[in-house]
């Protein structure tokens, strides 16, 4: 979980990270663990395959309390109506509210399989070097195959397990931010159950703004800078910054989500069509190249997230203040 108040204060970064270096042992085939074939009451049999099993297990040892607790959480889930997304994907949430399970598209699955070694390397380096990150952690990818008893046909489902960024929080409002304003307004959203978009965020910051300290904003910007440098290096775009307002805790909870999609030919075609036919002049569509997406995303955070000084100075003197360096003229 990442919130403005809990991000490390160290100004660490990943500018020196070369993600194109040889990956050594990660280059080979990733280990798959099949959990066997089981019976599904009334629907036939099913099997589960755990992708990148050892790498995900190593990652969970750093971010989960224990492997047994993780398994116990996944064994008790409920279907969850995640409002705000356009994909209409299947979502579930563990009963302890720790994890979210999402069915991902085949294109997202294929993209992750390509950049997975770099993802594990990046997350491990952030952990070991103390680099700030606000990526919502993906903790497992599973392929579930259901074989129908009568037809004998197989139905495959690719599932992703990720941390629940809002665990333990009382979220009153939440935003899905992509750094674009065109077609990014949710007129029907009201309350914590609905997800607001970029134009909603800009409007709310004008009418009833909320502020963070300069230190907290710098920490968030550093984390976003690190993560977007990484995502650009693996050709990923169309991600979002999920921002939740915890009014009771007086905090903003944030994390980058939906970062499994690479800038493939179909996304390039979508960019061309929207730029030519849909989006007004002087505006960019939501889907643009990873480099342009990164720049727009960083600019939006820097412009529309307001901050206040970490310390307030009430000194009135001709001598420069020791805190702010400013004196009366």
Rg: 22 Å
How many β strands by DSSP? 13
Order of helices and strands: EEHHEEEHEEEEHEHEEHHE
Beta-strand content estimate:
15-25%
The helical percent reads: 25-40%
> How confident overall, as mean pLDDT?
80
Q: How is the main sheet built?
A: 7 strands, antiparallel
The coarse overall form would be globular
Q: Given the helix and strand composition, which structural class is it?
A: alpha+beta
User: Order of strands across the widest beta sheet?
Assistant: 1-2-6-7-5-4-3
For the record, give the distance between the C-alpha atoms at the N and C termini, rounded to a whole number.
46 Å
* Poorly predicted tracts of residues: 1-29
Number of helices: 7
Protein name: PIPK domain-containing protein
Keywords: ATP-binding, Kinase, Nucleotide-binding, Transferase
Domain PIPK: 1-305
Organism: Escallonia herrerae
């Amino acid at each position: 979980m990442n919130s403005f108040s809990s991000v490390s204060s160290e100004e660490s970064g990943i500018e020196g990270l070369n993600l194109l270096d040889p990956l050594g042992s990660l280059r080979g085939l990733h280990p798959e663990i099949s959990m066997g074939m089981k019976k599904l009451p009334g629907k036939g049999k099913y099997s589960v395959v755990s992708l990148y099993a050892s790498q995900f297990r190593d990652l969970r040892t750093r971010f989960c309390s224990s492997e047994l607790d993780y398994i116990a959480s996944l064994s008790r889930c409920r279907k969850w109506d995640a409002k705000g997304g356009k994909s209409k994907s299947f979502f579930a949430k563990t009963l302890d509210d720790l994890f979210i399970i999402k069915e991902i598209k085949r294109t997202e699955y294929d993209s992750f399989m390509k950049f997975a070694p770099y993802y594990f390397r990046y997350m491990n380096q952030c952990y070991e070097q103390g680099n700030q990150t606000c990526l919502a952690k993906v903790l497992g990818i599973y392929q579930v195959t259901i074989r129908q008893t009568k037809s004998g046909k197989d139905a495959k489902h690719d599932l992703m397990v990720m941390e629940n960024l809002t665990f333990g929080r009382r979220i009153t409002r939440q935003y899905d931010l992509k750094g674009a304003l065109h077609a990014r307004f949710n007129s029907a959203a009201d309350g914590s159950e609905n997800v607001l978009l970029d134009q909603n965020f800009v409007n709310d910051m004008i009418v009833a703004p909320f502020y963070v300290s300069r230190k907290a904003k710098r920490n968030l910007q550093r984390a976003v800078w690190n993560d977007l440098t990484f995502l650009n290096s693996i050709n990923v775009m169309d991600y979002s910054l999920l921002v939740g307002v915890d009014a009771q805790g007086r905090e903003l909870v944030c994390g980058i989500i939906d970062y499994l999609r690479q800038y493939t030919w179909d996304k390039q075609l979508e960019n061309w069509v929207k730029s030519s036919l849909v989006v007004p002049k002087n505006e960019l569509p939501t889907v643009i190249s990873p480099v342009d997406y990164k720049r727009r995303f960083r600019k939006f955070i820097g412009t529309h997230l307001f901050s206040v000084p970490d310390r307030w100075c009430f000194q009135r003197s001709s001598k420069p203040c020791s805190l702010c360096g400013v004196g009366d003229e």
